[in-house]
Amino acid sequence: MPRILLIDDDEALAPPLAQYLARFDFELVAAVRPSEGLQRLQTESFDALILDGMLPEVDGFEFCKRLRAGNEAWRHLPVLMLSARGDLTDRVVGLELGADDYLAKPFEPRELAARLQSLLRRALQPSRGLAAQGTAKLKRFDGLNIDLDRREVRVANEAREATVDLTSTEYELLLMLATQPGKVFGRDEILNHLRGQEADLYTRSVDILVSRLRKKLAPLDAVKTLRNAGYCLALAPRA
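^ that's the sequence the OP posted. Answer follows.
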């Protein structure tokens, strides 16, 4: 049963939400303060994190930033952010800081469950696109290696390789582009693939994910933008 950590200072939210998510075989564990949530992360194992944007001690955006800069396990933990405001700025900031998805309050519990299911599918089957094609366990490109077994991405820098820490969403995006180097994938196509559901009008999230991926793969100029078309992997495959 996947364990989900909820960090939200609304104490009334957790009990009914835990009861509802149990119908989808999720175990919800709640913390009302960031310090309590951090302690649980340090001592327990979780499959995803639901993080409120407005919290005491430190807001959810700063907590997400610190999480992604923490130990390796936390860097890959799927994060779904909540916010009572739900405006575009909050969404952009949350995604830029490493969140994998965003949901505005008030929300429908069924939508939250669907988002969690999608996040966990991506985290547990990060290489589904390539593995389904029976491809090699190691994908090699000019300056870039993707190890599907270890879920490792390495960028070659002169005489050495450096491992790149990617979130599950960034990793899945890279694998999608790597299935067909040079092919242009549109924003809606990427959203459908990453979320496992129909893309909504909020395609700005794709631009943010691509920007994050580009920064982490630097100095490689790995992902190209084709205006009004989409994105492609601009690296030549190697044998």
